[in-house]
Amino acid sequence: MNGRADFREPNAEVTRPIPHIGADYVPTEEERRVFAECNDESFWFRSVPLAATSMLITQGLISKGILSSHPKYGSIPKLIFACIMGYFAGKLSYVKTCQEKFKNLENSPLGEALRSGQARRSSPGQSKQIWRCLG
């Protein structure tokens, strides 16, 4: 012994380093499949229903006189705005679900980064890349 205590266990598992997920990251084939699945599901199961519901509510409010219609364009501008807000609300509401799908991937560097919390601790450029892929 050299005077220092060795506290490592002989059968201890060595943890792999967390991969760097940056703007130059290329997703694996499985990650691409999950990206496409998330995009499709967030559109059909969240964005379309929320956009349609917000447009119906807006039209109802205009019909009852609670909201006023535009003198020249009628209810169209408010309906378009409601549709866009519903679309983005639907996309944003699906982010957590999509993150869980990536966390459940076995051999995914992106999933590993999400499991370890790197997405929250990364720089703004890295966070934008991850959110852009998920949104």
TrEMBL record:
UniProt keyword terms in alphabetical order: Endosome
Coiled-coil segments on the chain, per record: none
Subcellular location: Endosome
GO cellular component, one term: endosome
Residue ranges annotated for the OCIA domain, each copy included: 24-109
Superkingdom of origin: Eukaryota
InterPro entries linked to this entry: OCAD1/2, OCIA_dom
Signal peptide residues on this chain, from the entry's feature table: none
Quaternary assembly: Interacts with OCIAD2. Interacts with STAT3.
Family stated for the protein in its record: Belongs to the OCIAD1 family.
Protein name, entry field: OCIA domain-containing protein 1
